[in-house]
Amino acid sequence: MFRIPWLKILFGLVTLWFLAMLYFPFAIMAILSFQGPSGSVTFPLREPSLIWWHELIRPGASPVTRDVGQFITNYWSGLAVSLVMAITTSLVATTLAFLAVQGFRRGFRGQTAVFYLFVMGIAAPGIVVSLGMGQILFFLEIDRNWYTSALVLHIMYALPFCFIFVLVLFRRFDHRLEEAAMTLGADPITTFFKVTLPVMTPALRGSLLFGFTLSFDEYERTAMVIGSQLTLPIQLFNTITIRVTPLVYALGMVITTLSFTLFGLYIYSLARTMWRRKFSVVL
Amino acid sequence: LVGPAAVWMLAFLGLPLLSILVFSVFRLEGTMMVPALDFRHYQEILAGATNWRILTWSLIVMATVAIADVLLALPIAFFIARMVRNEAVQMAILALFIIPFWTNYLVRVTTWIPMFGRNGVINGLLMSLGIIEEPLDILLFSPFSMLLALVVLNIVGCVAPMAFFLRRIPENLLEAARDLGARPIQVFWNVQLPLMVPGMVTGAFFTIVATLSEFSTAQIIGGDKAPMLAGTIRSQILYFQWPQASALSVVLLLVIVLVVSLLFRYQNIAKYL
After folding, report:
1. Contacts of B30 (CB under 8 A, 6+ apart)
2. Which of A96, A99, A115, A161 to mutate to test the interface with B (most CBs of B within 10 A)?
């Protein structure tokens, strides 16, 4: 197949084209976030300025944007809530996922049922889960809070992704390492923390990253259960549905930069592990 | 050891889904939900032509995006897994595909706003290149624009698993096929494609699940002209029509379970994990 040179060129071009399609919108967004005060959300770029960035960093400070002032929210509170939720979700989901994977490695009755429960967690539409949870809270008259009702749904959502990621990476784990440790007298818990976990650091870090990102970007599941303290994605969605201004692009750039940096750090750590161990952990 | 995770899923996934089922037969009196065993919301869904149109449109969008993504990911996965020789480069290209997935989905949808419209980037590019004279109507905030955005937004879900399974095919298997006289197209059709099916099914799964739960793209890019199931549920929620929204949610869940189980029946991806 790959001996046909023109096919390689053609497929390479398709790949390149799609990469361009993936990144081009981000580039446009970055440029348009420097739109002038009278500019709209599309080209042309009128009197490029930092006004929208200024507005994002210090809400309500710049007089020029007062005409859209009523839509401007303080995104920093949302960012704080989202960060705390994302970190908690990532820690809890990763712990639960690692525990579950240990169980799956040994095998147990009802394994398939639990597996499909996880699949359902990925497949169930967020809006449906959110509505269901919202109805329960409404009927039982339970208060909605980001640290209760919203957080448990975030963990529920991240858990299947963390689980499957960790499970797939564990397939490459050499279980003889554990057997060797046990033969030498280590108990299961010591073995796990001294042998299994250090070898599986890529899985651990990846799962943490998965949990963090899924929670940090979650909108649908959060919508009906959040209460009064909004998360960043909810603030973002509320703004977008009312009116899109270049401020949204500036905010988008902040979120995107944060996410890409985290992912870049993970890839860097993965590459270093691969380099040291001379094998591919992912593919 | 599986206990905590399973209990968590049952409590915070199982119970909400159960509540959907329960509330879908409740009656709505004014703004009050009254416990009842009333199937009128289902009757309304079955009787109303609008709902059938929404359902059909959702299925069309789902199928179009899934098929387009699997087909488009095919050359990309081949290029990454079989044509690039250097493992580090393979990883790098794959990472480039995965990176955009890591940012907020809403932000990704938002980045498509300047692309469309009469003064949109795509229309502008096409006009300045002299390909078209007038802005194309299908590139306004239309269902077509939405499909285009959805295909690009979801491509990574197909590229990654397909490249993964393609890479797992041992080189000597392909050599054996070639030595036995198979032409490149036969190697592809009889050896590589069948071994890639799990990757394609995984990709289709992610795409299908994503498009069926999707409403923000329809609203932001699609111009809210042709709502899909999830979008309709969302507007019903906003108008406090919770029992109706629950009944429609049950329908949506049934569609998803049906499509996903058909996929898994065709190819059980669980055994590859």
Report:
1. none
2. A96
